[in-house]
Amino acid sequence: MFKNPEKERLRKILNTSETIAVVGLSDKPYRTSYQISQAMQQAGYKVIPVNPEISEALGEKAYASLSDVKEKVDIINVFRRSAFLPGVAEEAKRIEANAFWAQQGVYHEDVPAILEGSGMEVIMNNCIKVTHALVK
């Protein structure tokens, strides 16, 4: 059964990361993905929007897919429905990142096996903003 990393490991991931690619980031300020990403941006992280439906969000150019992002990504933060997680995880394997982080309420049992051997830490059903506030 899947278990998220312990608090100390989450702290290390957040403390050693600079760039967060946010899959499913909306350009609408009332959406949760926007608000959480904005809070992480204000906490000092570079946020890269990944959403084929928008051209930019939070003052950053948006990319249609993770594969289109050319700069180094430390954390992939996912705001998509759980059913989409395996596909996002398959795409995530093609880029180098330290962590695959699915937001609160987003979980899929196949993700750990998909990302096994990728070197990525898997965190699911966990809000990155809440965790950041608790472990910093």
Please count the helical segments: 5
Query: How many domain regions?
Result: 1
CATH fold category name:
Rossmann fold
- The structure class reads alpha/beta
Give a quick account of the main beta sheet: strands, pairing sense, barrel closure.
Answer: 5 strands, parallel
What's the gyration radius in Å?
13 Å
In round numbers, the mean pLDDT is 97
Q: Helicity, in percent?
A: 25-40%
CATH architecture: 3-Layer(aba) Sandwich
Strand content: 15-25%
In CATH, what is the class? Alpha Beta
Beta strand count: 7
Distance between the termini: 27 Å
Give a structural overview.
About 30% of the residues lie in helices and about 20% in strands. The protein is built from 5 helices and 7 strands. β5 (about 75-80), α3 (about 85-90) and β6 (about 100) form a beta-alpha-beta unit. The chain has one domain: Rossmann fold, CATH 3.40.50. It is α/β, with parallel strands linked by helices. The strands form 2 sheets. The protein has a 5-stranded parallel beta sheet with strand order 2-1-5-6-7, with helices on both faces. A two-stranded antiparallel ribbon has the order 3-4.
Protein traits:
136 residues; alpha/beta; Rossmann fold; five-stranded parallel sheet; two-stranded antiparallel ribbon; 7 strands; 18% strand; globular
